[in-house]
Amino acid sequence: MSDVKVECKESVSRDEAASWLLLLSKAFITGEHGEFPFGPGTVSLHIPDHVRAELEVEVEGDEVEVELEFKWTMAKHDAAPAHDGADRVIKARQANGARRATRSPRSRTAVTKAR
Predict the structure, then answer these.
(1) Are strands 52-60 and 63-71 parallel, antiparallel or unpaired?
(2) What is the value of pTM for the model shown?
(3) In sequence order, which residues have a C-beta less than 8 Å from that of residue 114 and are 6 or more positions away?
(4) Helix (H, G, I), strand (E, B) or coil at 88
(5) Tell me: the pLDDT tens digits for 10-25?
(6) Residue that wins the pLDDT comparison between 85 and 18
(7) Which of 11, 60, 81, 104 is least enclosed by beta carbons within 10 angstroms?
(8) Cα gap 48→82, rounded to integer Å
C-alpha cells in the first residue's frame, strides 16, 4: 500500500493536456520543484537528476491509451542509475492482449505498429 496516493481522472482538452505536459517538462528541464494542478489545489514534486521511465501505448479497437510513468526514490543521494540504458525493454501489446518484449540497443526507439 502507498504512503500517499493522489489520483484524478477527468476529460480535458488537448490544450489542457499539453499544459500538464509543459509543466512536467519544465520541472524536468530546470531541476526545480514542479507545481501541478490537482483539483482545487496543487501538488509539488521535486524531480531528481535520474528517474525510471515507462512509456506504454495501447490501441484497442478505436481507443488509444498512452501512459507515461516516471518513478524515483526520495532518498537523499545523487547516485547514478545502476544501468546504462542498454537493458531498456519495450513492450508492445499484441492484438490478442498478450505482451511481447523486445530489447532496444538504442536509447531512442519508436514502436510504430503492434501486430
Answers:
(1) antiparallel
(2) 0.60
(3) 57, 59, 92, 93, 94, 95
(4) coil
(5) 899 999 999 989 999 9
(6) 18
(7) 11
(8) 15
pLDDT digits (tens, 9 = 90+) for 38-61: 878 888 888 999 999 999 999 999
Radius of gyration, CA atoms only, the chain: 17
Query: Looking at the structure, do residues 66 and 24 belong to the same domain, yes or no?
Result: no
Q: What is the residue range of 34's domain?
A: 1-47
User: Is 16 in the same domain as 37?
Assistant: yes
Spatial separation of the C-alpha atoms in residues 52 and 80, rounded to whole Å: 12
Residue type, 9: K
88 in Cβ contact with 104 (< 8 Å): yes
Residue bearing cell 492484438: 95
Distance of CA 108 to the CA centre of its chain: 15
